Every structure is written in C-alpha cells, then in structure tokens.
Amino acid sequence: MATVATVSAGSPYQENPLKPILFAATYTRDEGWINGTGKGIYTYQFDTTTGSLTPWAVTPVGINPIFVLSTTKVFSTGQRVIYAINAVNENSAKLPGTQTGYVSALTLQHDGTLKLLNTLETLGGSPTHISLSPKQDHIIVSCYGGSLTMFPLKHDGSLGDANFHQAFKQSDEIKSIIHSATWLVNSNHVVVANLGTDELLQYNFDVENQDLKPLKPVKVAAGSGPRHMVVNPNGKVAYVVNEVANTIDVLSVDKASKLLKSPSIQTITTLPADFKAPSTSAEIVLSKNGKFIYSSNRGQDSIAIFKVNENDGTLTLVGFESSRGKGPRGFTIYGDWLIVTNQNSDDMYVFKVDSTTGLLQCTGKSYKINTAVCLHVAEF
C-alpha cells in the first residue's frame, strides 16, 4: 500500500494566479527489467516564458508510482486532486487469491509536496494508466496484469470503492494486457487498449447505474500491441500508438454511434525506413492546435512528428527529433513546450514546439531524474 512521506526544496507554493507545475512519476525499485532508482513523484515549477524547470519537491508515494494525473475540477475542499498508481503485484485483501496494485488520491501542498487523501487496491496487478472521466467524477485504472477498474470520486476528490471491475480471461493462447483507457469526445464511450489481444475494447458508461457496459470491439493488425490513444478535439478521428509494431493506427469515429469504426483508415510507421534495430513505441500526444501528432520511440530514441490532414485526419511524416537520451517513455506538451523523460539514461529535456511546422528545437535545458516514465503538467 502507498505510504506517503515528503521531502521538499525550493520556492513556496504560489496560489494566485494559477501556475503550471510539472509532475514526474518514477520507478523506485529494481524490477529485473528496469532498475528503478527514483524516489517517488517529483514536482517542478515550470516557467513557460523560458521553458525552464525549477526542482521543487519529491514525495515518496509507495513503490513504483509510475503514472500521475490531476483534475482541473476543484473539489469541495477548494483544491484540485492528483491521482497516482503503484505498479506492484501484491496479495489482494479485497479479492483473496489475486494480485493487486494501488491507486491514491493526493493534494498539492504549499511546499510542492503531496498530501495523501486515501489509497485503494486497484483489484489487479501492475496498474499502468489512469484515465479521468469527462465530468471528472470517476477514474479508470488499467492494469497490465489484465484488468480494468473504475472508481467514483467523492466530494473532496478522494476515491470511493470501485463500482466496476473486469478481470480478463488469461490462457496459454490468450493473454490480455490492459494498457490504457481513453474517453471519446462528447459521448459516454470509453476505449480500452488491450495490448495482448490487439483489440480496442469499447464501453458505454451507464450514468444511471454507474457502470461500464461492453460494446463492439475493434481489432487492429495482429502483433500491433495497442498501447495509448488520443482523440482529435473535433471528435471525428482517434490515433492509437502500437507498442510492438511501432505504428500508429488512424481510426474514424462514427458520427451517429460515436464509436470507433473498423478498419483503420491508415496505419503509419513511427520509425525511419532505414532503422532496423529493436525499438518499441511508447507515448502519443496531440499538439495543442490539433495539427500535429507526436510519438516516442524507445530504442530509436526519438520523438516522431506527424502532420494531421485537416480534411480526413490522416498523418504525414514530418520528421524525427532525438530525445537526447535513452528510452523516451513519457513526454508531455504544454503550451509551446515539449518535455520528454528518458527512463534508461535518467534525464529529462525541454524542447520548443514550432506551432506552424510541428518541428522541435532542443533548448539545451536538461535535468537529472532517475527512471522517470510519466510526465504531467497541470495548473495549481
């Protein structure tokens, strides 16, 4: 279970006006495939005039707090709330005989540290992603171990007991790996990426019963490994990055049903044509103006840049920008800045985004941070 301790440094917390804060989530122990040496969730004050990050505080939030997300909604306490997961496999007290990780609700303090509201089991092992509902009244936690759990948010932003849980069948032939959940625009539909079965599972959020009801899934090419998805703000097109195949699938959203249509209207590689070494895709982000898609390549160690066709949403390759490190897993865009963290070289770099061409220019600003894998910027 998450145990929160705090260590702070830097400037006092500024309440008015709201200022952007960068949250960085890390692996904190040796998992065999990664030697996590991070200390928890880090906060940085972000100067959007210069692109500079000022280290502020680090809060140990249990083991492997690898994903962090915050609300824009202000809860009854007058605060926005941050959610984080612990990517562990421990014996579940709620579901004996199964494995679980943990999810926590936290608030940002005046010294940049995080204060725990509560922690609950995710009811599945190795949680890897958190999705916030459009009304910011629920979160969905995706678990790499093969499960999906939804939690209601209480009046103060703390977590209520799960009101939906699905553990997917596992066998020698079928191995479900649930990697993320993404809400479609202007609907109660959510799309869940099953990396193990090459499916995009679609659900309807039943508002009355506070439940998720399965709808028709969409298959992508065998061996793709769908990981994360973003949706164009116009609600017409979705983009899925495939970890294993190093591709992006472009899918139309049906106007009437507001569900993904099959097949994909385009599948495009995230790698240079002449790159043959091992690499896996990780994150996908849409630019603030909706004109460009960015995806990170771990192995080729770059950010791939694509231009979005304003008519049909298809992608055209613009180019590649080195991440300046090894293993760029997580990155985020805020305003005209892109920040990427390289989990295998323990560093983080800031790039300026050209809103006209989509190209990235490295500012030369780099920061030491151990095994960080998720970045999130929010205003506090």
Automatic annotation (TrEMBL):
Report the domain of life of the source organism.
Eukaryota
InterPro entries in UniProt: Cycloisomerase_2, Haem_d1_sf, Lactonase_7-beta_prop, WD40/YVTN_repeat-like_dom_sf
The protein's GO terms of the molecular function aspect are: 6-phosphogluconolactonase activity
Query: TM segments?
Result: none
Tell me one Pfam family matched here.
Answer: Lactonase
Which family does the record claim for this protein? Belongs to the cycloisomerase 2 family.
PANTHER family listed in its UniProt record: 6-PHOSPHOGLUCONOLACTONASE, 6-PHOSPHOGLUCONOLACTONASE-RELATED
Q: What protein name applies here? A: 6-phosphogluconolactonase
